[in-house]
Amino acid sequence: MRVSLIATVRDEEETIADLLDSILEQTRRPDEVVINDGGCTDRTMEIVELYRERLPLRTTAGGENIPQGRNVAIRAATSPLIACTDAGLRLDPRWLEEIVAPLERGEADLVAGFFRPAPQSPFECILGAVNYPRLEEVRPERFLPAGQSLAFRRAVWEAVGGFPEGLPYCEDLIFARRAQERGFRQAFAPAAVVHFRPRSSLPALFRQYRNYAYGDGLAGLWPLRHALRYGSYAVGMGLLIAGAWWPGLWALLGLGGAAYLWRYYRRLWPALGELSPAWRLGALFLLPLLRLTGDVAKMVGYPAGWWRRRTGRFGSLLSP
Q1: How confident is the model at residue 103, as a pLDDT?
Q2: Which of 2, 25, 36, 298 could be cross-linked to 73 through a Cys-Cys bond (beta carbons 3.0 to 4.6 Å apart)?
């Protein structure tokens, strides 16, 4: 069955060649590669053109954000199966073969692939180990696909009205949830791996998680999860302040913090062997700061998205 691999790009001249080279290395080649120009002002599309003789390439242009760009690319695609990824990534050689296999076997209509960090510094190595789930942590029945490692039948995209173009973030989660609500079958392909570079600094991490949480607020996703985060930090601050009068409360706060961080230290442990002795020690102290940065970013971003949704200034966010 024919497969179109699509991606929408904007100013990715430093990373687009890595993606296209990894497409050339696929054990199963796509029948068509559709790259959408989402408003590039650099040499991205010039680099894409260099691959025209080596890939079955089609280029399009349009869209002001990722979901709009993806929809433009999919409209131009000609295959019944669509595989979706992003620039800034490198595909494992078996990625396409693995992610479309459940579709071709008739076992699923939508397939989620996996992702692994490809760090380029000790900081990125620590961040990649701490902030992203290991494969053994994944529960396939609850794992929602991300747009950078996703495949589906074109009929699914048509039935749900495409990616929701009013959402600048979290559009892939809404797309997958709509497909589930309409009874389409989902599968998880753990061997369909894309490799990504984690953020390289705390400010970059803060912006990333603030934007994700802003998208959650816009889309009305995970309200209980965000409420629990606010509640946990409120309790923690209360224990910290009250500990000035009852020092025993600080011990309780320490136990709570240790319980929260335990899972992330377990993730970090296998990665310590890749670090120098100095960075191994630093990682133990950096981990709480990474979690705090991400949590604060989410607590800043979510209410901004929630308020914009509540005030209605973003229009009908969930309409196709």
Answers
A1: 97
A2: 36
CA distances from 34 to 205, 227, 308 (A): 30, 40, 33
Are 118 and 193 within 8 A, CB to CB?
Answer: no
Pick the CATH number of 3-196 from 3.40.50.1110, 3.90.550.10, 2.30.30.90, 3.40.1350.10: 3.90.550.10
CA angle 167, 173, 176 (to 5 degrees): 120
**H or E element, residue 248:** helix 248-268
Q: What tokens does 263 get?
A: 């899972």
Q: Indicate the domain borders of the chain.
A: 3-196, 202-311
Which residues does 252 contact at the CB level (< 8 Å), separation at least 6? Answer: 239
Digit-coded pLDDT (tens) for 291-302: 999 999 999 999
Amino acid at 44: T
DSSP category for residue 85: -
Confidence (pTM): 0.90
Tokens 């989902």 correspond to 186
